[in-house]
Amino acid sequence: MLITVFTPTYNRAHLLPRLYDSLCRQSFKDFEWVVVDDGSTDGTRTLFEESSAIVHDEAEEQENSVLKRIKEGNGISSIRYFHQENGGKHRAINRGVKEAKGELFFIADSDDWLTDDALSVVADYYEEIKGNQNFAGVCGLDGTEDGRIIGSGLTEPVVDGSSLYIRNHLGVTGDMKEVFRTEVLRAFPFPEIQGERFCPEVLLWNRIASSYKLRYFNKIIYLVEYQADGITSGIVRARMQSPIASMMTYAEMTCYKDVPLAQKVKAAINYWRFRFCKKGNRDIPRMAWYWNVVMPLGWLMHKRDKAHMLN
């Protein structure tokens, strides 16, 4: 199997049918759909484990018809569902990578969906670099339903490079859709820190970028709808509640050669910003001593964050 489409989900039963329908429309069929339910309490399990439900009204009947199609797997050769205790998206991804049978790993969040040709495009670009161990995979663009690119897009149709190079030297901005070789993700698992339920994805993407490059192509393959209660909207709070993973991310950014000095300074400030969320010195990621100079700026940002949390 070439592609595992992986969905980490938490209380998104009402949105999963949209993603499911986009998978059914794929012209490319050599894929599986693996879903890891991160402790949902909204009946997500019912979508995948029960073939029918009691119908009380017309709206529920319409929804139930979609859920029956999910159970039957129409248009998708393999659907596998796993439920685990709530521990955060990064733990769900680790589980999905472990369970994946595909050569490539395509993360599709439960509140987003794919363009109809997404998997076909991924397969075509991957075929060009398949077997080249310098590549961790391929990467397309995120967009909106009306066709707008999220971020800057690329200046060329195809660009080869690490994400650190693409972001920091070519100035590419915005979320993008990385599709990694599964074996690479198995070699770079997310750290699972006791008591923390969030780990920035960029921590892992940077680690991979230090050893591999991606083939980037200037085409939208992934459609995004940011939710009011999603991780993106509450990113500062999430990082404050998971300070070790946050500090780890920023401390490592100060060490990468492809990160310009100005970005390293910002990373060091953010390190201290979230360092002040952590009580005690146990398990604290370390930075070079000279970054202590930006500690006061980090403290000011920390105070501002705390004030915003109270509002």
Task: Describe the protein's architecture and organization.
With 311 residues, the chain is α/β, with parallel strands linked by helices. It is built from 12 helices and 9 strands. The protein has helices at residues 16-24, 44-49, 58-72, 89-99, 118-129, 163-168, 182-187, 201-209, 235-241, 243-253, 261-275, 295-310, and strands at 3-9, 31-38, 79-84, 104-107, 113-114, 135-143, 158-161, 176-181, 213-223. Helix 1 links the parallel strand 1 (3-9) and strand 2 (31-38). The protein is globular, with a radius of gyration of 20 Å. The termini are far apart. Mean pLDDT is 90; it is low at 51-66.
Keywords:
single chain, 311 residues, alpha/beta, nine-stranded mixed beta sheet, 9 strands, 40% helix, 18% strand
**Overall shape:** globular
Provide the gyration radius in Å: 20 Å
Number of E strands: 9
**Roughly what fraction of the amino acids lie in strands?**
15-25%
Helix fraction, binned, reads: 25-40%
The SS-based structural class is: alpha/beta
Brief write-up:
This protein has 311 residues and is α/β, with parallel strands linked by helices.
